Amino acid sequence: MAYILFVNPTILGASGMNKGAVFTATALSAIIGCLLMAFLANYPIAIAPGLGDNAFFTYSVVLGMGISWEKAMTGVVVAAILFTILSFLKIREIVIDAIPRDLKLAMAAGIGIFIAFVGLQGGGLVVANKSSLVAIGALNVPTTWLTIFGILVIGMLMARKIPGAIFIGLVSTTVVGLITGLIKAPSKIISLAPSLGPTFGAGLKHFPSLVDPQMWAVVLIFLLVAFFDTAGTLIGLAQQAGIMKDNKMPRIGRALMADSLSMLAGSVMGTTPTSAYVESSAGIAVGGRTGLTALTTGLLFVLSMLFSPLLTVVTSQVTAPALIIVGVLMVSALRDIQWQRFEIALPAFLVVIGMPLTYNISYGIAFGFLTYPIMMTVAGKRKEVNGIMWALLFIFVILLYVLNLMPKS
Fold first, then answer.
1. Which of the residue ranges 19-33, 51-65, 119-133 would you say has the lowest mean pLDDT?
2. pLDDT at residue 271, as a whole number
3. Which GO cellular component terms, listed alphabetically, does the Swiss-Prot or TrEMBL entry include (predicted)?
């Protein structure tokens, strides 16, 4: 997860925000989220500012719509307040419990394929291509072979059932990268965290701007996308950890409250919405089952604020093998979907394929939720569709319509 400490300031910095302040806000919101998840919900799921929301903030809202980053951050604050209220009232918990088991399994598998795709892209094995959208990367690039080395090491360790295979693979890949010069050694070891001053409280100063309907569209998008990004990730990780009981995630209300409170704290400090991280699956894969995993992650984020130069050695080529291997583990959820029932197979397939192909977890969920009630009704199974699923259908129609109206970056 350490990459977000560098990716988030880069993306939000393009909107005019101070990169140093964003770095500190990112670390602090991750620390708060991880500690809340550990002590409130006791789950091995870590929280930090999510990818996707930050890109939407910068490229669609600030640069696309011409809204200042301070006003846009006000939209994040309002969305976070509403988010917390929905969690307190257990509305989020009710909605997640109402999602059919097959769609939850599809969400888990879809996230697995999505993060594997992220790993393949980050490691240079898959690249953009104008004619075919994607293509195999250049194998004459040395760093690509660093990724391949990591995949093989972790794969062989996993096959031999060696405990800590993913962690050992990450360390081994880093060491090889440093020895061969493919990873640049840090210039220094210790660096104090930058001041929060430039961004702290900026989102609290522009509430009058909420009279603009455009601002409420921004709030709605942040609210819905954050809602279902986290919901999908929580369900996927719970499936992987084997902690789902009777199609429900125990203590999910507490997990959602941890996410909501960290999002609220982050928005005040100056960062975009936090989210449960799919990278938590790496910890689950090596045995994490309790809040001790999230607590450890939070404490390591504390250390990262002092030793941030060392994090530069954990490049995308180092993390890529872990994401790919974890994708293999998560995609196993596909085996339990009722593929023989086409009214279920189609929505499930759209969830799975929609996440990597749109590069967005929420879109994949939307495709499945839009088709599930319709397919079940046509198949004569309308009574199996609860009212919440019908309500979600209309919500996602509105969401996709509003997103379509947004300027494209």
1. 51-65
2. 96
3. plasma membrane
Are 101 and 247 a contacting pair, CB within 8 Å?
Answer: yes
Q: For residue 238, what pLDDT is reported?
A: 87
SS3 state of residue 125: coil
Q: Residue 266 corresponds to which tokens in the numbers above?
A: 């982050």
In a domain, 37, yes or no: yes
CB 172 within 8 A of CB 304: no
200 falls within a domain:
no
Which of the four pLDDT bands, split at 50, 70 and 90, describes residue 224? confident
Give the bridge partners for 307, in sequence order: 191
Its domain, for residue 367, covers 4-188+213-405
- Greatest CA separation for the chain: 66
**391 domain residue, yes or no:** yes
- What is the Cα gyration radius of the chain? 21
- Nearest CA to 8 out of 364, 406, 311 is that of 311
- Tally of structural domains, the chain: 1
Confidence of residue 242 (pLDDT cuts 50, 70, 90): confident
DSSP 47: E
Q: How confident is the model at residue 402 (pLDDT cuts 50, 70, 90)?
A: low
Strand boundaries in 103-250, DSSP class E:
126-129, 133-136
* Tokens, residue 305: 């604020």
Q: Which helix (DSSP H) or strand (DSSP E) does residue 36 occupy? A: helix 19-36
User: Is 161 domain-assigned?
Assistant: yes
Query: Does residue 97 surpass a pLDDT of 60?
Result: yes
For residues 75 and 219, give the distance between their C-alpha atoms in angstroms, rounded to a whole number: 5
Rounded to two decimals, what is the model's pTM? 0.73
Spell out a b/e string for 218-234, using b for 16 or more CB atoms within 10 Å of the CB, else e: bbbbbbbbbbbbbbbbb
Residue 136 phi, psi dihedral angles, 5° rounding: -70, 145
